[in-house]
Amino acid sequence: MTSSPHLHRRTLIRRSAAAGLTALPAMAALSACASGGGGSGGGGKQQNAPGEVTERNPFGLTADSGVEVLIFNGGFEDQYARDVGAVFEEHYGSVEHNATEEISARVQARMVSGNPPDMINNSGADMMPLPALLKEGQVADLRPLFDAPSWDDPAVKVRDTLLPGTVESGQYGGQEVYVLNYAFTVYGTWYSRKLLHDTLEEEYPQTWDQMLAVCEKAKKQGIAGWTYAGHHARYLSFTMMPMMAKVGGPEVFDAIDRLEPGAWKQDAVVAVFEAYEEIAAKGYLLPGTPGINHTESQTEWAKNKALFLPCGTWLENESKADIAPDAEIAVGAATGLDSSDALPFGTLYATAGEPFIVPADAAAPRAGMEFLRIMLGRDAARNFTEKVSSLTSVAGAADGLALPPGLTSAQEAVAAAGENIVAPRFREWYPVFFSDVMGVAMGEMMAGDLTAAEALDRIQAGADAVAADDSVEKYL
Amino acid sequence: MDTQVSPVVDPPTPASRGGPGARPPAVSRVALAAALLLPPRLTPESVRYDRRYRTVDRYRFVCWFLAPPLLIYTVLVIWPFLQAFFYAMTDWTGFGGEFSMVWSGNFSRMWRDDAFWDALANSLVLLVLAPVITLALGLFFAYMLNAGGRHRRSESVGGVRGAAFYKIVYFLPQVLSVAIIAIVWARVFSPRSGLVNTGLEAVGLGSLAQDNWLGGSWARWVILLVLCWSFVGFYVVLFSAAMAAVPRDIYEAALLDGAGRAATFFRVTFPLTWDTVRTGWIYMGIQALDAFALVIVMVPRGGFDVLPTYLYLKAFREGQAGYATAVGVVLFLITLVFTLVMMRVGRRDRIEF
């Protein structure tokens, strides 16, 4: 991007000015850093003398290459990454390991000044918005990683060791893969087997009539049918989206992802919204649900105040203090409407999540990729699953592990779904629309402030506004 | 020290003292200017005995004391302000070094941006209501604590019983971090376990309980309540100090003329503390225009925005730092206009006492 020396100097001045905006006292120091940085988007500097490229060492690192990684210290904490770092250090020199809950606050200024770490676990509430990073050419294409020989068996490429959809989930409209999504998350309707089977003597509902019947029975026993994270009502989409795919087929998501006019007026979408509106209208919702946050909703659910909860596989780890040891929690695939649904029961919303990126301007992007290659090895993946109760995108890595009940049920759900694993993409592509428009409208519908039709009007208008907004990057 | 001692030790010759024909030794302006930077003991005598040196000496003192804070203020406040005006005219994402100029593009986009106008309206509601409520309560409480008590024989005016204790209670929110205040109040308004809903039900007003105090149309009133609650104590203490400075004999005179509590307040206390009230009004207005921490912690996304949270959303979640900076410039101008208006509107003759 910055070929002539003249342009390069201007870039440098801008960068140092930009850095000064965030940290003026350090301005002189930062501009000195920026002067050491190369052009942006060029695939990084090659500070380390490349070692010999072999099957075992596809990125040509040396024994003192070293790497700097920044890990999101959230629900998964950072021990799993320290374990990966220990393996890295055996081969390629020291690991500078940093962990924080606030990714953006920690590295944004360094990204601007062209001096980022070699690998970032860009996750959590304070993650850097990926569309903005892509627009700036700040993220390296990870295809060299996915096409490299895998850590365990050099005859197999990394991409062939992963669950289907993992590589695609890191694509933003083109062939380049910018993100490694490491944790494999299953979304669905969470319930306690003990409460559903033993107390209520019911089976998991497969049609909406059965769902209403189960909720009615629970209500008679003083248990609410549903609760959800009212303040983050987008959680409702974790069960509503797969229901749309089950009712209308996976094509339903195509129109939504492309922000097509009328995408939110498709028959399947309308049917699902009306079905959920009925849950609220019939009083099956835990009172006060619209005003509680995600942890409160999970606590109420774990205390058996409500039967069903839309959530993802992180639930078991996040709420382990509240979930009774004998509750036998499980995740159910989306309940459908009736026998005319396009896809069979078992259709599952599951996708690779927990994004890892390698900054394009990093000092040693290849070392960052090697770190990820070790992480995608079988041992590291099993270690992750054992440490944090979450599946990984590495196919079959968790086989044979003794998993807690919720995760076991998730594994079974993935197996039962077979081909019918679905995931919308607009959630990562247009995150503000997803949470602030769609999520809020879903919540207001459940709170009784909007009808299903009004909620859908609002969402469609929001989608149309995003489609017409030049300041939002479009994908697909 | 040196400047006072040395003339005595080494008095200037009479010729250099002045008088019609006796010009002081020719010391150049440059040398005098250089003396500004030197400590007195290192200043050459020829400069020190110059007639104009006295002025230099005075300004040297002022300059050296003002320079560090001015420098810090310039680097940390003025310079970022200037930069903000520049970045407001760019399409900078905030995540890279590249951007191009869009000039007034961000401002014309703001003009058409409904979400911006909503946030602005919310901020203006807080700007108008929060100072009125907070200052009214602060004045009332301070008056009651200082001059609103029953008449006792020993003194002409006094506070209500336990005034010292109340003062501490009112001030308590000030020592809590605003983040803690926000979290505690969010708990209080939590629909299932919060104090508000359970309290309403306990006294038989369960029908007034809300499912979603913090997310729906109630959110702005809850924020207003917490904002006022957290600042009233500060103004009670501020106004108490101002009222304590009002001479007792004015109160005694008012009493002798038969003024009641209300008349004393409106005719004596309020006019005599007006300067403090006006300062407080400006300060509280700026606090209300901010309200960032309360809103970001208490109100779920999509509930409602004020200008600072909208700015934050655009800058850090959508990667539109240029547009966000433009919003910041508008916020700056609103604050400026508000302050200027308040300074003008409130100007009165100062009453000396």
Automatic annotation (TrEMBL), chain A:
This is N-acetylglucosamine transport system substrate-binding protein. SUPFAM superfamilies: Periplasmic binding protein-like II. Residues 1-28 form the signal peptide. GO terms for cellular component: cell envelope. Belongs to the bacterial solute-binding protein 1 family. Pfam families: SBP_bac_1. The lineage of its organism: Bacteria, Bacillati, Actinomycetota, Actinomycetes, Kitasatosporales. Keywords: Signal, Transport. It is found in: Cell envelope. Residues 35-45 have a biased composition (Gly residues). PROSITE patterns: TAT (PS51318).
From TrEMBL, chain B:
Its main location: membrane. It is a multi-pass membrane protein. Coiled coil: none annotated. GO terms for cellular component: plasma membrane. Residues 120-342 form the ABC transmembrane type-1 domain. Residues 1-25 are annotated as: Disordered. It holds the Pfam family BPD_transp_1. The keyword Transport applies. It is found in: Cell membrane. PROSITE patterns: ABC_TM1. The chain crosses the membrane at residues 61-82, 119-143, 164-186, 221-246, 281-301, 321-343. GO terms for biological process: transmembrane transport. Keywords: Cell membrane, Membrane, Transmembrane, Transmembrane helix, Transport. PANTHER family: ABC TRANSPORTER PERMEASE PROTEIN, DIACETYLCHITOBIOSE UPTAKE SYSTEM PERMEASE PROTEIN NGCF. Belongs to the binding-protein-dependent transport system permease family. This is N-acetylglucosamine transport system permease protein.
